[in-house]
Structure to design on (789 residues):
């Protein structure tokens, strides 16, 4: 097995608030290998975006980062702001959710590229910059005729392609894509997914793909990590996780997705918890259809099940489950008052 | 044949044609055009500028009790059409017959009275509620405006009833809440409660779940189905999400650039989509089953500028099956070169750019165009470049629309085949506007899938 490009160990991101610490990311570990795409899914408010930003060190002031983000032989958590700044671009990239607001309306597309390449690769001359930029744009399907156009002359989908080209032109080895298709139409979304899917074949770029759309994960990702209330509750290869979800949350999330094959409506009652004072033990237990007496008492251990890793007491380890711990949990009714 | 345990629709609704007396609303030749004024003077005195045909000749009969889906990408005119049905946008021409009245021509004061019966659920629940108004006030306002309650006690009772109907129980808990204290799903429930509180018969729901979290979407859809059953509602469901349209709608109208390109019973459209655009939309829906992948062939490009729609069939520049009568024009040639340069790269672009630079200034929609030859170059160079481009991509649908290319008097003349605007025609159980389904035209062999 090849060495991971990025290895995240026990990452925590807490925000300060008047009521106490918000544990947006609370002990998350995963690895990303070269050219691999990891999909990060979960409901809103589960910490997906915070995790993506935390890995790149792009957190607002007042956020506390702890744990390890190992990249290129160093821990990004302890790397200085200045050094991180220099790594962002040539090594670590980010593709934002809203392409419409992320390009400077006063600058031509060419000027965006000149600025990015000029800053990070000052040795390039003008011709080389132009060549590299046009090549990057071509790979995204933008014709060279448009190189000197302004952002407003492009449609939403084209702008997202330009954003991706801008991230790729510096040839980073790791990119975070935060809901890159949410604001786009179905056909354009499919085109962008196609492009991102081609990334892993044509470049050695590793991608952390944040989305709430499980369909996109199935199309574009190699592995998937399901996040709930600041934890990754299940991760593994997409085909295995989607065919045999082991965590009740993954299963319920898959069932509540409305696809062309949907024949009945299904949903998860309640809403993701308040991260200031999350439920005790397994955080999903108040909404879990299979909750046991054990679940609210103790945090579940990560268990390896074939290629998947799951944090759920249903899968043991059995020696830690006390007698009677597997009895069903008696719970209060979840009402609309708690819904998301 | 419904695949859910949820309320099934009466059978009469699935058959097309149906008796006309079950019509709730009839939309005839509806057009909504917006003027874009080019400068300040034109804005003052009117005239000039381009016209955006947001809705361009739509005919639909809305039947009582059905869920009609308006499906399309942004810019297809689906939202404008939905708003026009409620008198929120004034159409340029056409009729919207509701009862014995024509909404297209109704005066504002009469329209206001009708709003008891015609209501809207907005896309963004966070923006549809006044942040300074508590739930009681937001829901009570329509009752007061319509004069449906005599006193506060009565108003409160109606508000509580509506809240309970949409599942915001116990209602007392929600009466004094501000929108900021509600979650997304709760807000959308409140918006729906406000829409049903006056007792409407038609709800136009504009992407009611697209801003909500995946886990709440199903709940809101289920609520809407319950309300339809209990209150005898008719829905116009506007969406770009085919998966929910398939589940939720009885009939679907697929829209593209202001026109309905395919309309029919949901099951038939999803089982056997006839328009290439519908086929493309369906193929592009991401599926959570990893065994099913998006096909490699997707229509290129994006929905064109509505102020300058393509000649002939609006979808032809993106359509993989386009053929002779689809409306080829000079712009398509420009697009072909852009594709060529994207594929072949910078060098080819640098070599050819100058020779075809006049392409972008050519008039659109003309059958015969003269390609300008830049000074210092000659016509045969341009002709051979066109031949090259053709040899390179002989299967590009554009070449089916090119009748001939001539060099005469030092000019290159290009003749396109005459473009025909496709009209809706009945094919099987659906109506579709596409030349592929016109028996009088001969589509290419490989057409359709």
């Amino acid at each position: 097995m090849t060495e991971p490009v990025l290895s995240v160990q026990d990452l925590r991101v807490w925000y300060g608030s008047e009521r106490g610490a918000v544990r947006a990311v609370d002990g998350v570990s995963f690895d990303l290998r070269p050219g691999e795409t990891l999909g990060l899914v979960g409901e809103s408010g589960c910490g997906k975006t915070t995790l993506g930003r935390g890995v790149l060190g792009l957190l607002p002031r007042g956020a506390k980062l702890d744990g390890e983000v190992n990249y290129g032989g160093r821990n990004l958590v302890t790397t200085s702001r200045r050094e991180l700044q220099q790594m962002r671009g040539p090594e670590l990239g980010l593709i934002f959710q809203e392409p419409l607001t992320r390009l400077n309306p006063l600058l031509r597309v060419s000027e965006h590229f000149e600025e990015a390449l000029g800053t990070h690769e000052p040795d390039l001359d003008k011709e080389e910059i132009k060549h590299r930029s046009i090549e990057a744009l071509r790979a995204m399907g933008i014709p060279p005729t448009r190189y000197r156009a302004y952002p407003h002359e492009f449609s939403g989908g084209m702008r997202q392609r330009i954003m991706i080209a801008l991230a790729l032109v510096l040839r980073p080895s790791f990119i975070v894509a935060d809901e890159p298709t949410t604001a786009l139409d179905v056909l354009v979304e499919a085109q962008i997914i196609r492009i991102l899917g081609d990334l892993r074949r044509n470049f050695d770029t590793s991608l952390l793909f944040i989305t709430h759309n499980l369909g996109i994960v199935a199309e574009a990702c190699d592995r998937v990590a399901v996040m709930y209330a600041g934890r990754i509750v299940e991760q593994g290869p997409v085909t295995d996780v989607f065919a045999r979800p082991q965590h009740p949350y993954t299963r319920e999330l898959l069932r509540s997705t409305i696809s062309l094959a949907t024949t009945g409506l299904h949903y998860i009652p309640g809403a993701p918890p308040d991260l200031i004072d999350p439920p005790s033990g397994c955080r999903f237990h108040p909404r879990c259809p299979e909750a046991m007496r054990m679940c609210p008492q103790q945090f579940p251990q990560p268990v390896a099940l074939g290629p998947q890793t799951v944090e759920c007491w249903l899968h043991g380890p059995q020696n830690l489950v006390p007698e009677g711990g597997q009895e069903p949990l008696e719970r209060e009714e979840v009402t609309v008052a708690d819904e998301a | 044949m419904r695949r859910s345990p949820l309320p099934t629709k009466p059978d009469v609704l699935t058959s097309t044609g149906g008796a006309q007396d079950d019509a709730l609303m009839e939309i005839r030749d509806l057009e909504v055009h917006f003027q874009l004024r080019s400068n300040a003077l034109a804005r003052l005195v009117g005239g000039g500028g381009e016209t955006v045909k947001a809705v361009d000749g739509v005919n639909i009969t809305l039947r009582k009790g059905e869920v009609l889906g308006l499906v399309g990408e942004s810019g297809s005119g689906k939202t404008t059409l939905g708003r026009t049905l409620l008198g929120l946008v004034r159409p340029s021409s056409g009729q919207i017959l509701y009862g014995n009245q024509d909404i297209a021509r109704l005066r504002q004061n009469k329209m206001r009275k009708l709003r008891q019966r015609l209501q809207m659920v907005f896309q963004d629940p966070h923006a549809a509620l006044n942040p300074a108004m508590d739930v009681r006030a937001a829901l009570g306002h329509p009752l007061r405006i319509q004069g449906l309650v005599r006193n506060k006690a009565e108003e409160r009772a109606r508000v509580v009833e509506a809240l309970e109907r949409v599942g915001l129980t116990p209602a007392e808990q929600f009466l004094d809440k501000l929108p900021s204290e509600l979650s997304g799903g709760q807000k959308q429930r409140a918006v729906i409660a406000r829409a049903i509180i006056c007792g409407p018969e038609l709800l136009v729901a504009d992407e009611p779940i697209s801003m909500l979290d995946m886990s709440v979407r199903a709940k809101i859809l289920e609520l809407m189905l319950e309300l339809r059953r209990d209150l005898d509602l008719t829905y116009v469901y506007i969406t770009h999400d085919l998966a929910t349209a398939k589940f939720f709608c009885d009939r679907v109208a697929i829209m593209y650039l202001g026109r309905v390109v395919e309309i029919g019973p949901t099951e038939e459209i999803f089982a056997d989509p006839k328009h290439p655009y519908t086929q493309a939309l369906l193929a592009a829906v991401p599926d959570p089953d990893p065994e099913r992948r998006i096909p490699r062939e997707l229509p290129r490009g994006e929905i064109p500028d509505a102020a300058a729609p393509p000649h002939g069939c609006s979808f032809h520049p993106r359509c993989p099956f386009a053929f002779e009568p689809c409306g080829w024009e000079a712009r398509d040639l420009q697009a072909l070169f852009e594709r060529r340069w994207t594929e072949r790269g910078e060098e080819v672009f640098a070599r050819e750019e100058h020779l075809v630079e006049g392409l972008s200034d050519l008039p659109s929609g003309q059958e015969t165009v003269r390609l300008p030859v830049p000074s210092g170059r000659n016509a045969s160079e341009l002709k051979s470049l066109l031949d090259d481009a053709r040899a390179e991509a002989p299967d590009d649908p554009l070449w089916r629309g090119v009748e001939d290319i001539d060099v005469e008097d030092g000019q290159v003349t290009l003749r396109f085949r005459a473009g025909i605007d496709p009209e809706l025609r009945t094919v099987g159980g659906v109506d579709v506007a596409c030349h592929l389904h016109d028996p009088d035209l001969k589509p290419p062999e490989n057409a359709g899938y």
Q: What stands out?
A: The domain at 11-282 of chain B is CATH 3.40.50.300 (Rossmann fold).
